[in-house]
Design a protein that fits this description.
The protein contains 2 helices and 26 strands. The protein is mainly beta and about 500 residues long.
Length: about 500
């Protein structure tokens, strides 16, 4: 119902202002005009002097010249979006001296801009030049934009930035150069932009960062270099004001101990999809404000027990898809308020005793995609899963990879008495081993219907005696693991058919 009321209101407003509205446009107020017509080749000239916002979408306009705009227009906002614009003359905006926001985006035939294009736009605070085909920016072309606060040049074809391109933008706060082909940045590119808060270079071709590039950016809070080719980061190169740092999908192989040590305000750090195999034990020690740490999709083999020391406020640690085969039992000693822990898609075979004891009972854990070794050593993890299944994402996908007879089965569906270690059952085929003391254990067979068996050694002969509780065949399987490491593991199996004449009674 509300939507219908809105449409009706817009229709009434269109009726009110339609008398003075250009034919190709819609005028929903005296101050705002929207034009969208593919056949429109030039901007309408009968736009009222009361109009403050002119938005042109999907038009056939190909050129902008000084004659494209009436001299007495008082526009504060101009948008030309997804049109066929090819050329903008150097004086096209000379009459629009009151313009505060300008967007020329989505014009795939626009390859260049003249140096003087923005010379008269001294009141401009927001400039958007996204998703065009601009390949070159000339030095000095932004010199008149001393009041500019936001500049976006996303999705163009830029390969470099001229030195001191932003030298007169003393009020610049947000800069987005994402999805270009820029391969380097000069160390003095931001020397006059001390108010810059947000800077994004996502999706470029940067290979390294000059050590002094951020020296003057004392207000920088968000920095995004995702999807570049950065190999190395210099010691303590980032400004202390930083709160969000994204270095996802680069080519980082190692990090020095002090690279993040000044970042006590940092709350978000993304190092995912790099080539990190190990981390210094004190890499994150000064990140006292850190809330979200993403280390997923690297090649980390193991983590020092103190690597997360002092991260008392961290809420999310993502270690998904690494090569970790073991964890230190005290790794999460300081993470008592953590909300999410991702350990999925690693090479973990077990969880050390007490590992999860430091976490809050509401912490969500992801563990699937690991080759769990379901033997006697996994009982701590087994018990923890049973009592904390509501805290585990993809709980049903935690599969045993060993031993063979329960491979592929969900760990928590396995009878706890089946979690035995083959080394406790090993013996010499010739009976020359030390005497095996008598013990009682469970051997699974026939879809986990278990029967009580005992193992004993007498006069050099090892025997297994089983009380079969159902009229069924019996399969015995023994796994021999040599202790000297020179021989490979061997498996021996034997199967006996159900005795003739039995009728599901105890044998």
């Amino acid at each position: 119902m509300r939507r219908h009321h809105t449409v009706a209101l817009l229709f009434l407003m269109q009726l009110c202002y339609g008398e003075n509205c250009p034919e190709e446009c819609q005028c929903f107020s005296a101050a705002k005009v929207i034009c969208s017509e593919d056949k429109m080749r030039v901007l309408p000239m009968n736009i009222s002097t009361q109009v403050k916002e002119l938005i042109v979408v999907a038009s056939g306009v190909t050129h902008l010249e000084i004659s494209s705009f009436r001299e007495n227009l008082k526009l504060t906002k101009l948008v030309i979006l997804n049109s066929r614009l090819k050329e903008i003359s150097c004086n096209a905006f000379d009459h629009l001296v009151e313009l505060q926001e300008l967007e020329i985006s989505g014009n795939y035939h626009l390859f260049t801009l003249e140096v003087q294009t923005f010379n008269k736009l001294t009141n401009l605070t927001r400039l958007f030049l996204n998703n065009n085909m601009i390949s070159v920016l000339y030095g000095g072309m932004f010199d008149s934009l001393q009041n500019l606060e936001t500049l976006q040049l996303r999705g163009n074809s830029l390969s470099y930035l001229p030195n001191l391109l932003f030298r007169n933008m003393h009020k610049l706060q947000e800069l987005d150069m994402s999805f270009n082909n820029i391969n380097s940045l000069s160390s003095d590119v931001f020397q006059n932009n001390s108010l810059l808060r947000v800077f994004s270079m996502q999706g470029n071709m940067i290979t390294d960062l000059p050590v002094e590039i951020f020296t003057h950016l004392n207000s920088l809070e968000e920095l995004n270099f995702q999807n570049n080719y950065i190999i190395n980061l210099e010691h303590a190169m980032f400004p202390t004001s930083l709160r969000k740092l994204i270095l996802k999908k680069n080519r980082l192989v190692q990090l020095s101990s002090g690279v993040f040590h000044k970042l006590q305000l940092l709350s978000y750090l993304d190092l995912s999809q790099n080539h990190l195999s190990e981390l210094p034990r004190d890499l994150f020690h000064n990140l006292i404000s850190l809330k979200n740490l993403d280390l997923s999709e690297n090649q980390i083999v193991s983590l020092p027990s103190t690597v997360f020391k002092g991260l008392f406020g961290v809420r999310i640690i993502n270690l998904h898809k690494n090569n970790m085969s073991m964890l230190e039992d005290s790794l999460l000693r300081d993470q008592q308020v953590m909300e999410k822990l991702y350990l999925s898609m690693n090479n973990l075979q077990n969880i050390p005793k007490g590992f999860f004891d430091y976490l809050d009972f509401q912490c969500i854990v992801q563990l699937h995609g690991n080759p769990w070794r379901c033997d006697c050593e996994i009982q701590y993890f087994f018990d923890w899963l049973r009592y904390n299944n509501n805290n585990v994402e993809d709980f049903s996908r935690i599969y045993c990879n060993y031993p063979e007879f329960i491979r592929g089965h969900n760990l928590v569906s396995v009878d706890k008495e089946m979690l035995v270690c083959s080394k406790n059952l090993s013996f010499d085929l010739q009976g020359s081993s030390a005497p095996i003391t008598q013990s009682v254990f469970k051997i699974p067979f026939n879809n986990y219907n278990t029967n009580q068996c005992s193992l004993q050694e007498l006069k050099g002969t090892t025997s297994i005696q089983c009380k079969v509780t159902k009229c069924t065949s019996l399969k015995f399987q023994a796994v021999f693991e040599p202790t000297n490491g020179n021989e490979s593991e061997r498996t021996v199996s034997t199967e006996w058919s159900a005795p003739g004449g039995c009728f599901n009674e105890t044998l």
